[in-house]
Fold this sequence. Notes:
The chain is mostly beta strands. It has helices at residues 51-54, 87-94, and strands at 18-19, 22-23, 32-35, 42-45, 56-60, 77-78, 80-84, 105-108, 116-117, 128-129, 131-135, 140-144, 149-150, 153-154, 156-157, 164-165, 170-172, 178-180.
Amino acid sequence: MADTSPVAGGRxxxxxxxxxxIAGASFPPGTPVRQDLVHDDTVLPGQANSIESTIVTxxxxxxxxxxxxxxxxxxxVQYIGPLTLTVDQWEEVTDDEGGxxxxxxxxxxxxxxxxxxxxxxxxxxxxxxxxxxxALSATxxxxxxxFPSLNGGVILLKPGSTAAAPTSESKPTSSGKKSPTx
Length: 182
């Protein structure tokens, strides 16, 4: 008969909307996380300041605890659907009083790792716009991750590259406006 006892540090089952990676850093519930590019099956707080740190894979459902010694501290990450946390927990990752603002979209912060913001930070040419979700109430965010864009443009990656490739070139038209070439 097969041994069905749980293995210490083994992967816990997720649901169709969650997964259970290792926390590569300490962070509170509600933190937008990204894949660690050095360690497999590990997440870190996301930040919209480089293509490597901008692609969010979900939001932490529970607190992430940084590994001390063996890499076995797992965090539950939800990547779609409604996530309900307390007002205090949302305040910690948004820096807004009173929790979330109903009907408002939230984005990954370009200035603070692991933070959500209501405003798209498109003032910095090196920052990215990464949609995370929309608030259904002060305590519930409907997670609807969007692929990030660089100041409103589309990011294309060349196979095997971590650098963004240009999407198109522009040339002037007879009206003086620029149109994309293909």
